[in-house]
User: Fold E3 ubiquitin-protein ligase RNF170 from Nicotiana tabacum.
Amino acid sequence: MEEEENLKRRKESEKPPEDDCCPICFGDFSIPCKTNCGHWFCASCILQLWRYRSTLQRCKCPICCRPISKLVPEASLLVQQEEDVIELLKKIERYNHLYVGGAYGFFLKVLAIPLLTRRTLRSVMDGLMNPDQIRLNYYLMRILALLLSWIYCSCQFEFIPTGGLGVWRLFDLCAIFMVGIFSLAGLYRRWVLRRRVRQLAILPAQPY
Assistant:
């Protein structure tokens, strides 16, 4: 009798609470998964949160701030055949592989280099397109231009026509131009996002 009760409690713990909701989207659980700290989230919500956090670090639980080293999907999802469920389960498995310790974990991280590279490039582009840090981007790009011009002169390359400006001046002007382009792109992206938010805000509430 006691074993049956323990088994029943264990099965109930593998499902999200019926009277609860996802702490990120505040909606009903969609493809729920449980963290190693015991909190439930929509799989898409917690993965999206991790995607916009630091590239090489584990996602932190929005409730208790503990690093999430493992995501466990609801047991009933493992037998479903819907394409969106299968795709999210693959992403959960990929996340779990990234933070496995030991030699096996290192091997899995090597296999995930393309994913980490894409995330790193995305983070760099987001920083360059952030209008709030235009001064920082300005100095960083000029330092990069100085470094590239030094490499160009040290290797005695002569394939870039400078037109009398000199290599350093040409690279410096290109860096300033790139900062301007990225800043304008960031301002446009911010305007588009704010416009979408305003459009969503004026939509009528859907009746339940």
The helical segments are 2-13, 43-51, 83-98, 102-111, 113-128, 134-154, 167-201. The first helix runs from residue 2 to 13.
